[in-house]
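JOB MANIFEST
job_type = single_chain_structure
chain_count = 1
residues = 334
[input]
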Amino acid sequence: MKPLIAIPLGDPAGIGPEIVVKSIANKDVFQAARCVIIGDKKVIEDAIEFTKIPLKINVINKPSEGLFEENILNLIDLDNVNMDEFKLGQVSGMCGKAAYDYIAKSIELANAGEVDAVSTTPINKESLKAGNIDFIGHTEIFGALTNTEDPLTMFEVRGMRVFFLTRHVSLREACDLVTKDRIKDYVKRCKDMLKTLGVTEGTMAVAGLNPHSGEHGLFGYEEVNHVTPAVKEMQAEGYDVVGPIGADSVFHMALQGRFNSVLSLYHDQGHIATKTLDFDRTIAITGGMPILRTSVDHGTAFDIAGKGIASEISMVEAILLGAKYSPNFTKQSL
C-alpha cells in the first residue's frame, strides 16, 4: 500500500489551495502516495476553477474512506470559511483560525495512526495572530499537539540534509546558544532522527560559527570553548561526527557526499545554503516527534494568490519525501 499522507490546506487566502490542487493532479504524487486533504470544500472548488484542473472532490469523514484514483481529491471538509467574508491575498483572522484547524485535524489523524505522515502547506503568522492562535508557526503547533518539547527541524534538498541548532531567535541570541551541552544534545537527537528515517550510514558534520571556524581563537572562541569539545566528547562516545568545519565549505562537501548531514548553528546559515542550491526543492522535515511531518519552505505568497501561477514543485517534493520516509519512520516507531 502506498503511504497515506494528510495535507492541511494552509491559509485559505494564500497559495496553499492552488498548490494542493496542482499536486494532487501530479502523476508522481499519485504513484507515490495516497493523499487526504483537510480543508474547506468551497475554497478547494474555487482553486479548481481558477487553475482549470479537472479534479473531482470526494468528501470523506476519515482517511480510510478515501477513493484513491487519478483526478480524485479526497477531502475532509471542515467547512470553516465564510465565502462572503473571504478575500484572497489578505491577512484574515478567519483564515488564520481555519489554517490552524486544518493542521490540528491533520495532527489528530497522525496521532491516531490513521495517516502515515503530514505534509504541510504555508500559513501566515499575522493571520494566526489575528485569529487569536497563540503559536508563531507550524513547528510550535506540532510540538504542542504532539507533546514534544523541542521538535527538530531538518532541511533536505538534492540529498543534502541540514539540521538547525537554533531557529527563530535573534543572531545575538543564537550565538549565545552555541554551547557544548546544547551541541551534544542536538547531535544525539539528530542522529536518532536520521536513524528513524532509515539513514544509518555516514558522518555528521558540525558547521563552524565564526569565519574559518575561528582560526583557533583569532576570530572568536566559540569553536575553541564549545564546538570542538562537544565534537570530541561525542566521538569518544562512539558518534560518527566531525567538526567544526567552516560554513563556507561544509555544505558543498555534504552535497558532494562527504557527510550525511550538517548541523547548522543558526537559522540563516543553513537556510541560505539550501535555498540557494534549489529554493523550490528545499523541504523541511520536522522530527523528534511521534509523527512525521514534511513541509514546503515558502510562504503564503499573498501577492499571487488566486492567479493560477504559483509553482507546486515544493508541495510535490514535500509529499514525495513524506512518502519516502514514512515507511522507515513507522517501522522505527513501532
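[summary]
The chain has a mean pLDDT of 93.
The first helix runs from residue 16 to 24.
exit_status = 0
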